[in-house]
Amino acid sequence: MKKILITACLMIATQAMSQTEKLNIKNALVVGQLDKGEDRYTLEVNLTELLTQQGVKAIPSLNMMKMGSDAVLLATDSLQQLVKSKGVDTYILVTIRGYDKRFKPSACKDDLSTALSIGNLFPMYREEAVSVSFEFIFYRNGQCIGTDIVKCGNVADRDSVIKRFRKVMARRIQNKWI
Fold first, then answer.
1. Per-residue pLDDT tens for 71-83?
2. Handedness of CA 68, 74, 77, 78 (dihedral sign)
3. pTM for the complete prediction?
4. Cα 66 to chain centroid, rounded
């Protein structure tokens, strides 16, 4: 019985430590998975700017494909070669996970092309929501290397979501991503 308990504790501790490891991001392509074009543009540009301020070479996906194009195109060989030629090996997929609840990160089981084909149901801001949870999924070489969820609370409109996002993300990038 003691051996089972000790083994269970060790497994839980190992899992907790693996989730707190830094991702060591040095370069990234930021892909916003939002339906509204202006939300996608705003999210990608703000995250790219925050990463650049921390010394990470970051490019928004809107620089790699035409406005309004489907993100699934980023999984094609030609665009992946173009991204690689620009010195980028990490993809950061950003989605809205939901509102006003605590969410756990999703399981990291899909490859890049599958993750890019998944849509998003939520806009950046919804009436009567007081918080917005953003989910980040990180890919290298087409495989998931980690996930992260950031909750931005005390929001009243779209502009306050962006303001909170910038404030929370500046610390998160420095403490957990690089």
1. 888 988 999 999 9
2. positive
3. 0.86
4. 21
